Amino acid sequence: MAQVMSDRTMGRPIVEVDTPALFVDLDAFDRNVARMSSAIVGAGIGWRPHTKGIKVPALAHRLIAAGAFGVTCAKVSEAEVMADAGIRDILVANQVVGEAKVRRFAALCHRADAIVAVDSLEGIAQLDRAASEAGVSPRVVVEVDTGMGRCGSAPGLPTLEMARRVADAPHLRFAGLMAWEGHAAGIVDPDAKRAAVSEAIGRLTSTAETCRAAGLTVDIVSCSGTGTYALAVGMQGITEIQAGGGVWGDVHYRDHFGVDHECALRVMTTVVSRPSDTYVVTDGGFKTLGSINSMAEPVGIPASQVARFTLSAEHGNLRLVAPETTLRPGDRLEWIVGYSDATVFMHDEIHGVRSGVVEATWRIDGRGKLQ
Question: Model's pTM, two decimal places?
Answer without folding.
Answer: 0.95
